[in-house]
Design a protein that fits this description.
The structure holds two protein chains of two kinds. Chain A is 0% helix and 58% strand. Chain A has strands at residues 4-7, 10-14, 19-25, 30-38, 45-51, 56-59, 62-67, 72-77, 86-94, 101-102, 106-111. In chain A, the strands form two sheets. In chain A, strands 2, 4, 5, 9, 10 and 11 form a six-stranded mixed sheet that branches. In chain A, strands 1-3-8-7-6 form a five-stranded antiparallel sheet, with no helix packed on it. In chain A, a hairpin with a 6-residue loop joins strand 9 and strand 10. The N and C termini of chain A lie far apart (41 Å). Chain B has strands spanning 4-7, 10-13, 19-25, 31-38, 42-51, 54-57, 64-66, 76-78, 87-94, 99-101, 105-109. Chain B has no helices and eleven strands. By secondary structure, chain B is mostly beta strands. Classes of the chains: A mainly beta, B mainly beta. Chain A binds chain B through residues 1, 6, 32, 34, 36, 42-46, 49, 51, 89, 93, 98-105, and chain B through 31, 33, 35, 40-45, 48, 50, 58-59, 90, 92, 94, 96-104.
């Protein structure tokens, strides 16, 4: 089955700096890669996603890049703000398989 | 607005008891999932369903069961609760792409 590795497990940055979280996946059939943000005590919320026919996608301060050959994808947050502090999860979904396999999460702390 | 809701939000139960967690979605999604979330393990898939009468085991299915009698509901049953099943449980539903989560149920087995 699919295996998703996520790094780092914790990340601390100063407000205004950029943050990058990286994930790798094992199943070459995976074709959909979402990122979720989970604030303390809340549900995971979808923040951005990318499909395998696209190399990069941006939405304001967040962007996701995908390298299909290397089977890795990354989340980039620019101009970080304290409200970006949360746990971020990457995930992968493949082909006709509709279930998401998640990485173990990254705790991002943005220090004011 | 469409939504996915879980109940109860919090539950304390005793070892050995049968427990059922409810999940109801109004997205009209065929695909529904149950995950558990534990520190250091992220979100792990327990069971999932791709439609009415369809159920499948995920990576941590032992001690759990689900049933899918209609599109809207996927209840999760713990046959005989164990302390190792103390966790936060999330139900989710989705299309071929986007997947949305319920608010979660915090279950404590004492």
């Amino acid at each position: 089955g699919e295996n998703v590795e996520q790094h780092p497990s914790t990340l601390s940055v100063q407000e205004g700096d950029s943050a990058v979280i990286k994930c790798t996946y094992s199943d070459s059939a995976s074709n959909y890669f979402p990122w979720y943000k989970q604030e303390l005590g809340k549900r995971p919320q979808l923040i951005i996603d990318i499909r395998s026919n696209v190399g990069e996608k941006k939405d304001q301060r967040i962007a996701v890049t995908l390298n299909k050959t290397a089977k890795h994808f990354s989340l980039h947050i620019t101009e970080t703000q304290p409200e970006d502090s949360a746990v971020y999860f990457c995930a992968a979904k493949g082909g006709s398989n509709y279930k998401l396999t998640f990485g173990k999460g990254t705790l991002l702390t943005v220090n004011p | 607005d469409a939504e996915i809701t879980q109940s109860p939000r919090h539950k304390i139960t005793e070892t050995g008891r049968q427990v059922t967690l409810a999940c109801h979605q109004t997205w009209n999604h065929n695909n529904m999932f149950w995950y558990r979330q534990d520190l250091g393990h992220g979100l792990r898939l327990i069971h999932y369903s791709y439609g009415v009468q369809d159920t499948n085991k995920g990576e941590v299915s032992d001690g759990y069961s689900v049933s899918r009698s209609n599109t809207e509901d996927l209840p999760l049953t713990l046959e005989s609760a164990a302390s190792s099943q103390t966790s936060v449980y999330f139900c989710a539903s989705g299309s071929a792409s986007e997947t949305f989560f319920g608010q979660g149920t915090r279950l404590t087995v004492v």
